[in-house]
Amino acid sequence: MAGLKSFLFLVLFVSSSLLRAGGINVSRVDPPFWWTGMKNHHLQLMVHGNRISETVPAIHYPGITLESTVHVQSPNYLFLNLVIDETAQPGTVAIHFMKGKKQAVSMAYQLKQRDRSLGSHGGFDASDVIYLLMPDRFANGDTTNDNVKGMLEKADRTNPNGRHGGDIKGIENHLDYIKNLGATAVWINPLLENNLPVYSYHGYAMTDFYKVDPRFGSNNDYINLVQEAHGKGLKVIQDMVFNHCGTNYFWKDDLPTEDWYNQWPEFTRSNYRGGVVTDPHASKSDYKKMVAGWFDTSMADLNQDNALVANYLIQNSIWWIENTGLDGIRQDTYPYPYKDFMAKWMQRLLQEYPDFNVVGEAWLSYPVSVAYWMENDRNFDGYHSHLTNVFDFPLMYAISKAFNEQEGWSTGTAELYEVISQDFVYSHPENLVLFADNHDGDRLFSKLGKDLNKFKLSMAFLMTTRGIPQIYYGTEILMTGLEHNGHGDIRKDFPGGWPGDAKNAFTGKGLTKQQNQAFGFLKTLMNWRKTKKVIHTGKLTHYIPQDGVYVYFRYNDNESVMVLLNNTNTAKTVDCNRFAENLKGYSTGLSVLDNTKIENLNTITVPAKSPLIIELKK
Ligand code: CA
User: Fold this and answer.
1) How far is the CA of 171 from the centre of ligand 1 (A)?
2) Where are the domains of the chain?
């Protein structure tokens, strides 16, 4: 309510001042509010309003100093650099915009008390399994917000590329489903406003970095969702985009500065070649196109070399963390913004929240390219990203191939072995986020030729090798889709998410036997993983795939888990002598997936095209 009161106060103040001062006004301030007691005492306000730059701002509030004011090309902006020292108390700060001796306009700015009850900002790690969902396509918990006045695109469930009506309420209704499956964190594709006439459902063309799209709910609904999730022991990871914003952002016809966006004489698309950024042989023109080209016609390329843009983005991310108690961020298109800015952002985040995590989408095919982006002290150019986590794209490609191929010197599970064996390029391979599919590519079950055995092999591997597994909504019930059929095909509605759906995956109603098997398999595996510290933090030793079976161990001083992946179409009896260094001290085992005892560890039989996960016993 305090927020509403100060908003009304602001509206009244502004509108009455508008009449007095011949059109000078304040129409927007970003960030909309801030907090006392932050580690970093600086705050830069972007004040937007008609001819506001003609005024001189003044603030009289104990503990707050207006250090400087920045004028830009557009007369309709002022940037106020504030210092909020330790003595500043929460409250409403009056900012007076003076013209000569007269006040042209005034506004109330709210400084809040930090709310420690929101969460620990403790981040995520390899003890987690992340469930990725696309809010428009997961569940429609509130049909009254499917169409909202003022929002350009209306719901149309018959259009694969249109909005289908999913929302925050839908996610909230099904947190228990996600929890029961065994996930411990939810990564939600962008929830912020995307007010564009078409393709607004995916959320990556944000038109307001400070506002949840009303078709998903309100900012308060989002805060409540994070609270509810925390109450159930689920972490929340927010999807952020610093590379671009939607072309309908409020500043679109009145950019603060000409270089707010990277400008080109005519529309110029990025070449999407992320590797150019680290390529010692890259041409300047390729590099420029990569980082300054636009991602799409509806996605304006933000220029983070402009210090005001940089500050705007950095403060925005802190605002969401502080406002909601988020546990992590997934940052889109990591190599596309200027990398020095990204490093500066990470430093600032970690200064404020030392245990926080950000996973970067560096969509690159080789471990050496991906490793550059995760903090390490061995980059060829001395670059420190300070980024805590990256997605393991090379391993995703390997999983997509391994179980479809015949075993060979470099095919089949050798694909997995080869990628894992390159972990020396990473400072912390356990911080890689692992996945077999996501919202941008072919769905796993389609990649695997709709073969349940291959699915089980993929998931067994994903859940037991090093790193932080992430699964994509619907993978657990074998949803299919191919990217070349359009993104709508890989982002179909989750069955049961809409009133009247014939199938309901939340209850199991109408699922096929195979879907139930897949769900049961993954649920067993994920809930087992949840309690297994040895999988979270144990060492990994793997053996060269032999006779079609890939064997590895996860172990610490107290326990050991043996994983055998048989990638052939016949049962294999494996002579375990080769694994003596890992079997020392163990004599029997428990097969995790079917809860049966393994009586001896001399030879182990693995059924055709199947995984075997064994907790070793002394
Ligand atoms: Ca809805």
Assistant:
1) 11
2) 13-114, 126-241+310-531, 539-617
